[in-house]
Amino acid sequence: MAMDSKRENVVSYLAKSKQAAMRKKLQQAYEQPDYEAAKAALKNIRAELTLENESAAKSLDEGIEETLTLHRLGVFKELGISLKTTNCLESINAQLSRFTTKVTYWSNSD
């Protein structure tokens, strides 16, 4: 799961007035340069979320190791910008959509 998706999933459980601050905290945690620092920051946030909203805390727990894969592999600095979101996939899908939606007649299912 992409970090941005996880972040938005977590903040969706919070009151609107608290979402921006928590979004910023999560972003700062995920931007830590190494695995240990990022995981420690996320554990601190999890403790805070437990007091605020248990569903948000559970959402953070789900897939936390997957969201830290780049950190664990030691390549966050090099690949974090490119791979931390699903934007690159969404961009490709949008481009494909431009071409496939223009086809009005398909001769067969192939």
Structure description:
It is built from 8 helices and no strands. The protein has about 110 residues and is mostly helical. The longest helix has 18 residues. It is elongated, with a radius of gyration of 18 Å. The model has no long low-confidence stretch (mean pLDDT about 80).
Please summarize what this structure is.
With 110 residues, this protein is mainly alpha-helical. The chain has 8 helices and no strands.
- Mean pLDDT score: 81
What letter string, H or E per element, gives the SSE order?
Answer: HHHHHHHH
Q: Main sheet, how many strands, which sense, barrel?
A: none
The Rg value, from CA coordinates, equals 18 Å
Summary tags:
73% helix; 110 residues
Strand and helix map with partners:
Blueprint: H1 3-11, H2 16-30, H3 35-52, H4 54-61, H5 64-67, H6 69-72, H7 76-83, H8 87-100
Helix pairs in contact: 1-2, 1-4, 2-3, 3-4
